[in-house]
Input
Amino acid sequence: ESNDVYNGNQGANAHTGGQGRLESNTICRNGKSGVQISSEANPVLLRNKIYDNQHCGISVLESGQGEIESNDVYENRYAGIAISRGNPIMRSNNAHDNGLHDVMFLHAESPTGPDRRHRRVQ
Output
């Protein structure tokens, strides 16, 4: 909790069934995505600031899961949140001002959960 994760290749990487909790961290200025979730990993991302990464803020790939809630995801090069063949639960995230898309789905199921809304901040 309350860590700064920056200037690395990949900010945080959960894969091969990995779990864990990233809460109230700043994840920025990484060479790839701020957070990548893949291969049946199921972490919790809660109230993080994820910005200025060279790929996506959060990437959910290849059967990645997880709970992604109340994160501020902005100014990432490609997408704020990108989902490709993953199925996370997403609630109340604030994805805005990202390069190509704020939230992008590629070959993915729609996220599950009671609140599927993502708002853009002016």
Observations:
- Residues 16 and 96 are 29 Å apart (CA to CA).
